[in-house]
Design a protein that fits this description.
- The protein has four helices and 27 strands.
- By secondary structure, it is an alpha+beta fold.
- It folds into three domains: 85 residues, Sandwich (Immunoglobulin-like); 106 residues, Immunoglobulin-like (Sandwich); 128 residues, L,D-transpeptidase catalytic domain-like (Beta Barrel), CATH 2.40.440.10.
- A five-stranded mixed beta sheet has the order 21-20-19-27-22, with no helix packed on it. It has a four-stranded antiparallel beta sheet with strand order 1-2-5-4, with no helix packed on it. Strands 3, 6, 7 and 8 form a four-stranded antiparallel beta sheet that branches.
- Strand 4 and strand 5 form a beta hairpin.
- The N and C termini lie far apart (123 Å).
Length: 412
């Protein structure tokens, strides 16, 4: 009996265990189904979790730009060393004299970048190292060479750094070679004039002469008094075609001084000097003889170009060579000055008898001379011959504004 009863008990217990396991499975399914339902309500089907992927291995790599062995590298091209999955140390790029080009590292020291342009006709050599995360060291090595121009184009400007000039002063950039129209356009695209107060102005290419090409910038109207002006001509590294490559950048910073305008009316036989809106001089003068076209003082806006206490003047056609004249202020390159001439003093204030200059007495010429500044306008009126390109380097204000703007190579 005991044996039969024990078997019955075991069957009951087994059924209970089976029921318990089944209930547990039902509960688990219910829980899973509830979570799936919640996921479905969130708009996303529940999926079985996936095994985590192992991160991709990034292999250390070193890149040099320019790469070792590169030739004819442009001096303004990008110069850098870059490390992938590594850091840089002791990077140097040295020229043939052993001088290192300046450069900076990125914050993570994964990149070094040169901060100065390369030189022409130079060989540069890389040195330093890349250190991989595991400590492996890869040296920076190899050399490259830069372009070697057969010709260089040099430029200069007429206004020195720190100068103070008059209100009509143009900015002149002169090149020592003739530039093609394409090269002029390339140069002009980089030219910049910045001012402390808004000033409308434009670049214009005047005709090439024996010294080379030239470009002038002038304001539409006279400069505002006190304006701070900066000019930048980024020329280094520019390929200017058959003329060659730009030799160096050109910059200047200057100040516009007080306003001084000379009003020179031939018919009045006088000059009037107006400073900052106030008349400060009214002087008897003699202008060029109108009956001889070669002696006429040109009408139009000249500027003060230079001055000297003594100038030797020559005009063999009229019988004088190396004649000393004093307190001479040049206003054009065709021989026009405002200067002292005691020989014409009896005509000053009454008749025009000079060979094109504006003659004053010694005392008056000196008094004016001491106030004159490069770039001051001299407004000549009343004569029969206008100032033009035939009269030298600077005739900028004789060109109407619309024509001036059309002389830009960027307008074609």
């Amino acid at each position: 009996m005991k044996s039969v009863q024990w078997r019955a008990v075991r069957r009951v217990l087994a059924g209970a265990v089976a029921l318990g396991l089944s209930a547990g499975l039902v509960a688990a399914c219910a829980s899973a189904n509830a979570e799936a339902g919640q996921a479905g309500q969130a708009g996303q089907a529940a999926t079985a979790p996936q095994a985590e992927r192992a991160p991709a291995t990034i292999l250390p790599r070193l890149d040099l730009q320019p790469a070792a062995g590169t030739t004819d590298v442009h001096p303004l091209g990008a110069v850098r060393a870059s490390a992938t999955a590594g850091t840089l140390q002791d990077v140097a790029l040295t020229d043939s004299d052993g001088e290192a080009l300046p450069g900076t590292y990125s914050a993570d020291r994964a990149q070094w970048t040169a901060t100065a342009p390369l030189a022409y006709r130079e060989t540069y050599t890389w040195s330093g190292a890349m250190v991989a995360p595991g400590g492996a060291v890869t040296p920076l090595a190899g050399s490259f060479t830069t372009v070697a121009p057969s010709r260089l184009v040099r430029a200069s400007t007429n206004i020195g750094d720190g100068a103070t000039v008059g209100i009509a002063a143009p900015i002149v950039v002169r090149f020592d070679r003739d530039l093609s129209d394409e090269a002029k356009a390339e140069v002009e695209r980089g030219l910049r004039v910045t001012t402390s107060t808004p000033v409308e102005g434009a670049w214009a290419w005047l005709p090439d002469d024996a010294r080379g090409s030239r470009v002038h910038w002038r304001p539409k109207e006279y400069w505002p008094v006190g304006t701070q002006v900066s000019m930048v001509a980024p020329l280094y590294g520019k390929d200017l075609g058959s003329a060659g490559y730009g030799s160096a950048d050109l910059t200047t910073h200057f100040t516009i001084g007080r306003s001084q305008i000379v009003r020179a009316d031939e018919d009045s036989h006088r000059i009037v000097v107006v400073r900052d809106g106030q008349q400060v001089m009214d002087l008897p003068a003699s202008y060029g003889l109108e009956s001889d076209p070669r002696r006429v003082t040109r009408s139009g806006i000249h500027i003060v170009m230079a001055k000297s206490e003594k100038v030797l003047m020559s005009n063999p056609d009229y019988g004088y060579v190396n004649m000393p004249e004093y307190w001479a202020v040049r206003i054009s390159n065709n021989g026009e000055f405002i200067h002292a001439n005691p020989a014409s003093q009896s005509a000053q204030g009454r008749r025009n008898v000079s060979h094109g200059c504006i003659n004053l007495s010694l005392a008056n010429a000196r008094a004016y001379f001491e106030t004159a500044m490069y770039g001051d306008p001299v407004e000549v009126t009343g004569s029969s011959v206008p100032l033009s390109a035939r009269d030298g380097d600077i005739y900028d204000w004789a060109v109407p504004w619309d024509e001036w703007k059309a002389m830009s190579k960027l307008s074609i």
